[in-house]
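Protein modeling request. Please complete all fields; requests missing the sequence field cannot be processed.
Requester role: graduate student
Desired output: 3D structure, token encoding
Chains: 1
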Amino acid sequence: MNNHNLSNFLSQPSMSKKPMPKINLFTMFRLGLFQMGLGIMSLLTLGVLNRVMIDELNVLPLIAATAISMHQFVSPARVWFGQMSDTKPIFGTHRSNYVIMGTAVFTTLAFVALQVIWRLGASLQANGWNFTTYAWAAVLALVFTLYGLALSASSTPFAAMLVDISDEDNRSQLVAIVWSMLMVGIVVGAIISSKLLEVPELCGAAILTYNPAGEKVANIPQLQATINPVFMIMPALVFGLSLVAILGVEKKYSRFSSRSTMVEREDQITLGKAIGILRASRQTGLFFSFLLVMSISLFMQDAVMEPYGGEVFGMCISETTKLNVPFGMGTLFGIGFTGFLILPRLGKKNTVKYGCLGAAVALVLIMMSGFTANAGLLKGSLLVFGLSSGILTAGATSLMLDLTAAETAGTFIGAWGLAQAIARGLATVFGGAVLNLGKILFTSPVMAYGTVFILQSLGMLVAIWLLQRVNVREFQENAKKAIALVMEGELD
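Delivered output (492 residues):
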């Protein structure tokens, strides 16, 4: 520790006596703009890119889903980025500059991914599934891998910052508002994107042409002309939102330096020791398992919902994009009501339990709507599914923050982010794989897609069983002991 750092360290007690300002409602909503941007990007990748690949370009669902899911499979990097933000500030901030730099990279890579998809589609139309086509699929997977690393570098420090700037009495409200804004992003993104994509040239026979073999295929230049601008406008908007959300907040509100026993001693918390703290309680593994199963069960339909609307209900791209509106609105209401009304009354574990049950019922209704091709029933079912997802998300996120130690918040948030991200990746692949299998087993598209929804519903019941075994008090006691051992240098 140099003299400058020593001086700072010695002056810390007097500084910590000054009361830190409490985060206000306006700043909570402002922070939510970052999550709003993530919602928009999620819509673009899973709502637009996935639909275009499967329905318009006829890419096999498993290949399309696997390529996109690569951004989730690099999620172990979340633990590393979380630990880095705990211990290695960039230009004087522990969280903010990680968020801004990561956002700049992933918004750029979204446009790059779209350009690779056009090359993949052109190769498939001209040559079928040959070496070149598979090579373009591999390049797409690589782009999404880099996209995932950039996403990890921004979203994990952001979530850790929420812990840094909040207190016990306002954390649940902050979580409710910030995660609500994620759904606002999905809804706003769906509305704006559907308007940008709602052109006659982008639906039905209007987008068809012929390949060298004389077969009808999608007119890729026509698709490019309409979709490319969307992937320039929306990511630029997302980057702008992140700047507005982040700038100045950490400097004004962060309690990181006054809370953490690691301040000015970051050399003591290596990644290995941080993982040692994670492993100190069996509750960490139980909660990790619960998040994994719950998230897989919640998100398997991500890879198939827009293609479901296109194939079973005959919807255009702009119409399937708007399927995110009832889901997003339901989730928004679910998160909002949960943070302020349901959580204080039912408690965190019961809130999550009822959210899982509601989601299981809604998934069965989504499948039933396909038998009549009733778009109204589908949208109503998505509203119920969104409401249940909101209740579940708010409850699980609040529980997650209880299972987080302040001294290594970035590392713990990284671990929970890892569970969710692995689950999102597996969910996307499983969704595509089960749909592929369903199409082999059943001639009816409804039955093929319904296989995905039924498996999700069953998974929710397994998640409830795991949830019953989670004990917050046991976790907190074990984590405190592990952190004390780290500070004494006794934990391997």
